[in-house]
Specification:
single chain
Length: 81
C-alpha cells in the first residue's frame, strides 16, 4: 500500500504541453474550415467553398492534432529512483 502512494502522478508538465499543442492544432484546423458562406443565398462560389485549405489542409491539421493529443495522453514519464 505504501508503494502506491509514492508513485508520481502520470500526467506531468510535458504531457500538458503536448496536450495544449494538440488542442491548438485542432482549433487552428477547425478555424481554417470555417467560412464559405455567401451574403446572398442565391449566390454560389465554388472556389471559396471547395478551396484546398478547407478540403485538404484543415482535415490534415485536425487529424495531426488528435494524434498529438493521443501521444500526450499515452506518453509515460521517466521514474527517477
Amino acid at each position: 500500500m505504501d508503494q502506491k502512494n509514492n508513485l508520481p502522478f502520470s500526467f506531468q508538465k510535458e504531457n500538458y504541453k503536448l496536450l495544449l499543442i494538440g488542442l491548438a492544432i485542432n482549433v487552428l484546423g477547425y478555424i481554417l474550415m470555417i467560412g464559405g458562406a455567401a451574403e446572398d443565398p442565391n449566390e454560389f462560389n465554388a472556389n471559396e467553398l471547395f478551396s484546398s485549405v478547407r478540403i485538404t489542409l484543415s482535415p490534415f491539421l485536425i487529424v495531426i492534432g488528435y494524434v498529438v493529443i493521443l501521444i500526450a495522453i499515452m506518453k509515460k514519464t521517466k521514474v527517477q529512483k
